[in-house]
Amino acid sequence: MAKICILGGGFIGRFYAESLCGRRSKDSVTVVYSRKEATALRFAKDYNVPHYCTEMEDAIAHAESEFVVIALPNYLHEEAVMLCVKHKKAVLCTKPLGRTAEEALRMTLACEKAGIFAGYLEDLCYTPKFLKSVKSVEDGAIGRILWAKSRETHPGPHAEWFWDIEKAGGGAVLDLGCHCIEIARNFIGKDVLPVEVMCWADTQVKPIDAEDHAIGLVKYENGAIGQFEVSWTFRGGMDLRDEVMGTEGTIWVNSFLRTGFEMFTSGNSANYVAEKAETNVGWQFPVGDEAHELGYPTMFNDMFDAYENGTQPRETFYDGYVVNAIIDAAYKSARTKLWEPVQLPEWRGKRGLSKPSVYQSYDEKHWLIKEEILPNGDKKIILKDKESGAISEINQLAG
Ligand SMILES: NC(=O)c1ccc[n+]([C@@H]2O[C@H](COP(=O)([O-])OP(=O)(O)OC[C@H]3O[C@@H](n4cnc5c(N)ncnc54)[C@H](O)[C@@H]3O)[C@@H](O)[C@H]2O)c1
């Protein structure tokens, strides 16, 4: 049984508690920290937490804290991780790991040096649909991955610190792009080096210093491309979609806004619908078990199983650091309007990969471009001459 201390009694802290408690789980939240006593007390009451603290270090050092779950604003992640290092407590940190790769690398190396377990709470890499998709990719169902796109857009975050560039460390790219980038890395291969990034980012709607909308491309050493689309200005709820294209197939995943559950209400009993839903009247797209659809319970199971088995979880601090490095390059590219290299002073994956050849032999003289059955049943074979490069076609008549 894991004894869990949650730092932060806000939005994600409560989601985490809901995922950890009340599911006949053998794990329990034993300590909660919040700056304000009223928040800590409410949280303790709502989730039956026996101890609460209003000092962060007291919560971490508490005898009933075995795992520390960091659910604090981005600017407090490093401070909280370093306190876990000091008190030798296993630590699980929400996304993004750092505001920059420099912060994230310091956290990663400090935990490794201290020999403490560290897990990166990237929930969207644990949703049921995502895990099944990644397994299909790993089994070769869609061949070599060429392009992995992930989109997270919603009408903007729910707390003031997100909108303060100093505290948050960035805008939609850091807040939402961190999910999208790690999703694409999982599909393309976490050991494949991200080489360079091109990003457009702008502040189109909100009166803030950070970007509220961005699109980025991440080039990988094996020729694959990752794409992220993020926005804090999207209207209509929270849109979480992934698209993966391989040489042998395609995957489309819609994780939130269309899960197959649609409902119309006149507003007779207006209530909470789903995260970031903008209306509770008219046609609704609710999410059955929100915590589960977002991957939280599976994510915690993986973390605690890995700890007990002495292995690494699927998502580690090192992954969080690679994601931060890609984001740093994206911010630089948005300023310079150029492809910017991903700076990874610590890289533990493969090196020296190259794009596989596009040439597939049809016969001794030709490369195959494509084959297609036409509406009249004929088969067309489009070829390229190996010597002259001339393009030709063979038309095989139906029957
Ligand atoms: N899907 C996800 O994984 C997901 C979703 C939402 C948020 N998050 C992450 O969780 C973290 C917290 O976000 P949130 O949405 O819960 O924010 P929030 O503002 O709702 O909650 C943050 C908590 O930290 C407390 N806090 C704020 N400033 C503090 C300070 N100076 N010292 C101590 N405590 C302080 C707040 O009172 C609150 O209890 C962020 O890093 C965010 O990126 C992750």
TrEMBL record:
It comes from the Bacteria. Signal peptide: none annotated. SUPFAM superfamilies: Glyceraldehyde-3-phosphate dehydrogenase-like, C-terminal domain, NAD(P)-binding Rossmann-fold domains. The keyword Chaperone does not apply. Residues 3-115 form the Gfo/Idh/MocA-like oxidoreductase N-terminal domain. Residues 135-251 form the GFO/IDH/MocA-like oxidoreductase domain. Keywords: Oxidoreductase. Belongs to the Gfo/Idh/MocA family. This is Gfo/Idh/MocA family oxidoreductase. It comes from Aquirufa avitistagni.
